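hiii so um. not sure if this is the right channel but i have a protein structure encoded as tokens and i wanna go backwards to a sequence. like what aa goes where. can anyone help
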């Protein structure tokens, strides 16, 4: 009997929950890139209490990975060992009261922006330009169109590895450009966002302008993961990539977008390894041509396929 058989199935060692476990869950179908290997076990908790119980009772040493709606994320072809936690409908509520928008982590950012608009609340229009969920936006201090999460978050809620629900005021989030100081093993479950009274029609018009600008300048109808690299201080990543001669550069089935150089796209046959290797080639060419070290904005997780490289 081999070591894997002796170890047994991970799912048999996990606590009993009200949510759903799924072995060998196909992650590629959730990813915007449409690539990537399976989760050893996927867990969709029923609600916050279910997640808190799981975190408190999960055997120590089991790798835990949290994913959102699959944007700004690249899952490697070998998949993700351990448990992949995906927050579903139980974490998607949006409640508006006294100018504060309370949103669950799984609520898409654009849905939160639309809810605020319908209530005549301004200041959250930029969320309609963020291709992801509130949880992911909280984790990376996401931003678009000259605003970011640090400008609107009043407080956030996160569950730590012991299963404790923590309420974090804005100062505790330690926000900087596309970064939060909150430990990686804490799971954001929601936040209260600041908004201000405004004219619903004007808010809608501003959101329409943001939508049109995205369509005109970004490959939004392709299999992509959003902005690939962070903007270096005082510079634009796409300009550096373009000046390094990388526009439309290809590797396997992956390509640098001709429309916006800071987007990588799956032309239909790419593997995760193709996309990651293309990104590393772009980084090398920018380094050689411009002397600038681009930093990945897309989160890359999991293991390469057998015999592959990261």
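sure thing!! here u go:
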């Amino acid at each position: 009997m081999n070591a894997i058989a002796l170890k047994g199935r991970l799912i048999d060692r996990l606590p009993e929950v009200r949510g759903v476990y799924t072995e060998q869950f196909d992650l590629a179908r959730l990813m915007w890139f449409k690539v990537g290997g399976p989760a050893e076990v996927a867990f969709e908790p029923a609600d916050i209490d279910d997640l808190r119980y799981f975190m408190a009772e999960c055997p120590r040493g089991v790798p835990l990975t949290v994913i959102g709606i699959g944007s700004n994320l690249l899952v490697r072809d070998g998949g993700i060992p351990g448990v992949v936690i995906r927050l579903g409908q139980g974490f998607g509520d949006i409640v508006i009261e006294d100018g504060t928008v309370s949103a669950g982590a799984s609520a898409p950012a654009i849905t939160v922006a639309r809810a605020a608009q319908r209530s005549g609340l301004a200041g959250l229009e930029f969320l309609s330009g963020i291709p992801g969920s509130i949880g992911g936006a909280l984790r990376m201090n996401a931003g678009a169109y000259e605003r970011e999460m640090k400008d609107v978050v009043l407080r956030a809620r996160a569950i730590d590895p012991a299963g404790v629900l923590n309420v974090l005021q804005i100062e505790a989030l330690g926000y900087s450009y596309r970064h939060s100081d909150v430990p990686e093993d804490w799971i954001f479950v929601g936040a209260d966002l600041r908004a201000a009274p405004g004219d619903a029609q004007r808010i809608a018009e501003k959101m329409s302008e943001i939508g049109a600008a995205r369509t005109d300048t970004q490959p939004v109808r392709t299999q992509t993961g959003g902005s690939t690299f962070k903007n270096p201080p005082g510079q634009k990543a796409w300009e550096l990539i373009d000046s390094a001669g990388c526009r439309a550069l290809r590797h396997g089935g992956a390509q640098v977008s001709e429309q916006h150089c800071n987007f990588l796209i799956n032309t239909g046959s790419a593997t995760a390894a193709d996309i990651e290797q293309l990104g590393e080639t772009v980084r090398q060419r920018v380094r050689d041509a411009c002397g600038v070290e681009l930093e990945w904005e897309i989160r890359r997780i999991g293991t390469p396929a057998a015999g592959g490289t990261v």
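oh and The first helix runs from residue 3 to 7.
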